[in-house]
Amino acid sequence: MRVPEAMKVGMYYNNRDVRVEYMPVPKIDNRDLLIKVKACAICGTDIMEWYRIKKAPMVQGHELTGDIVEIGKDVKGYNIGDRVFATHHVPCDECYDCKRGNGTLCEEFQKGNNFDPGGFSEYVRVTGRSVETGILKLPDNVDYEEGTFVEPLGSVIEGVTLQAGDTVLVLGSGIAGLLNIKFARERGAGKVIATDLSDSRLEAARRFGADYITRAKDCGPEFIREVNDGRLADVVIVSAASKAATEQALQSFDKGGRVIHFATPREGEKTGRDDYANWRTGLIETRTYGATPESCREALELIRSGTVRVDDMITHRLSLEEIGEGFRVASSGEGLKVIIEPNRENAN
Ligand SMILES: [Zn+2]
Ligand SMILES: [Zn+2]
Asked: Are residues 42 and 140 in the same domain?
């Protein structure tokens, strides 16, 4: 496979300005891999502009799959042409947090970006520990696009525990919410209730397994009790990055309930909470960020076996030239999963 000298990338300036620019193809070191990117999805965090803009201009993209085209001479276990999923951050497996089984709290995991430059480019260099533990070979029946769901579904697996029969309330029906709905169904949830601001997303929530859907503002305790035999939810998943959703979650759980903060309000935003009111509720709150390699492996297996179907969430497949449109669609909430295919010829 001949690798060119220069490549196209999608350079992020802000959500309305993502430009096709040229960069040299990264040169690999002895312990690196070079991947020809076949598919890279736009993640909900890629369009969190206040969070991303601090580092702009930059090449984003961390939910990627592709073919290995170059292998550093000290790297073992891969072949040219392997179809793979790669993750940009992995735990060190050595530190205090890792040894306690909290890989996503590991400092290396949290700071790591082992992609150069990022998935929205024709080629990406994978470096650091991601080469050792962050590459998964795609089974033959998992295509590149489905493979981009490994990390987002892995994040759900990482953060969500529920018991069969639980009533699950999902606040926010973007991709994270929809994956949570599918996963809750797979884990034997009793009832699933989903909210959103957008009717098209609510429709998607229903299609993918929610029993009840409602506009976020209409999902007060009365509504939940009405559809849930007088009780509030056993598990509440916050999958909308907003203060309102975060506050709503704390009004929506029943005794012994669990609130899982999958998305976060903006930095510095204070939520009003009454901790006294929760004193005798047995509330368990957890927060979740990212997916360890174990969770990614589990996610890939769920996709491979067809246990969790993901291809039905893809609404846009775009070339790199269309990346600006991709960010527009993703940030306006018009589409569900938007996938960029950097090595596809432009359809236009
Ligand atoms: Zn992501
Ligand atoms: Zn660690």
From this structure: yes
283 Cα–ligand 2 center, Å: 29
Q: Are residues 170 and 111 in the same domain?
A: no
Cross-strand bridge partners of residue 318: 340
Ligand with minimal distance to 99 CA: 2
Alpha carbon of 5 to ligand 1 centroid (Å):
29
CA of 177 to the centre of ligand 1 (A): 13
Q: Are residues 127 and 264 in the same domain?
A: no
Q: Which-ligand-closest: CA of 61?
A: 1
* Owning domain of residue 29: 6-154+291-341
Q: Write the pLDDT tens digit of every residue in 58-88.
A: 999 999 999 999 999 999 999 999 999 999 9
Relative to the alpha carbon of 100, which ligand is closest? 2
Ligand 1 mean position to 95 CA, how many Å? Answer: 24
Model confidence at 348: pLDDT above 70: no
Are 253 and 203 in a shared domain? yes
**pTM, rounded to two decimals:** 0.95
pLDDT, one tens digit per residue, over 231-287 is 999 999 999 999 999 999 999 999 999 999 999 999 999 998 888 999 999 999 999
pLDDT tens track for 109-164: 999 889 999 999 999 999 999 999 999 999 999 999 999 999 999 999 999 999 99
CA of 201 to the centre of ligand 1 (A): 19
Tens digit of pLDDT for each residue in 165-209?
A: 999 999 999 999 999 999 999 999 999 999 999 999 999 999 999
Can you tell me the distance from the alpha carbon of 285 to that of 270, in angstroms, rounded to the nearest whole number?
A: 17
